[in-house]
Amino acid sequence: MYAVIKTGAKQYKVTEGDVLSVEKITGDKGAEVIFNEVLMVSDDKEIKIGKPFVDGAKVVGQIISQKKGSKLIVYHMKRRKGFHKKTGHRQNLTNMKITKISM
């Protein structure tokens, strides 16, 4: 059984037992998070596709840790003008373990 969920303006294909990094979700280590924005659910018998979300479907995950992602370097330069600017960014992430998928 697998599902496609939407969180943090991104979509993820998940199965039970998966560990994934998503954009930061508030909560402490060990807290449960319920994802109600399920776009698609599939099991051995049938596939349910939502318009835009599947009614009654939910995915339950558990927070493993809160961390920061790798650093991105953003560099701007205009040639022949002497202009250059270097900035960086680190995204806050949450490690999740998917514990249950229900239709």
Protein model, in words:
The chain has 103 residues and is mainly beta. It has one domain (2-66, 95-102). The chain is built from no helices and ten strands.
List the keywords.
103 residues, mainly beta, 4-stranded antiparallel sheet, 0% helix, 63% strand, elongated
Instruction: Please give the count of helices.
Output: 0
How can the largest sheet be summarized? 4 strands, antiparallel
Helix content: under 10%
Instruction: Give the strand content.
Output: over 45%
Q: Separation of termini?
A: 10 Å
Shape: elongated
Tally of extended strands? Answer: 10
Order of helical and strand elements: EEEEEEEEEE
Low-confidence stretches: none
How many domains? 1
| Strands ordered across the widest β-sheet | 2-1-5-6
Average pLDDT: 96
Short description:
The protein has 103 residues and is mainly beta.
Secondary-structure blueprint of this entry?
Layout: E1 2-7, E2 10-15, E3 19-23, E4 32-35, E5 38-42, E6 47-49, E7 58-68, E8 72-78, E9 83-89, E10 92-102
Antiparallel strand pairs: 1-2, 1-5, 3-10, 4-7, 5-6, 7-10, 8-9
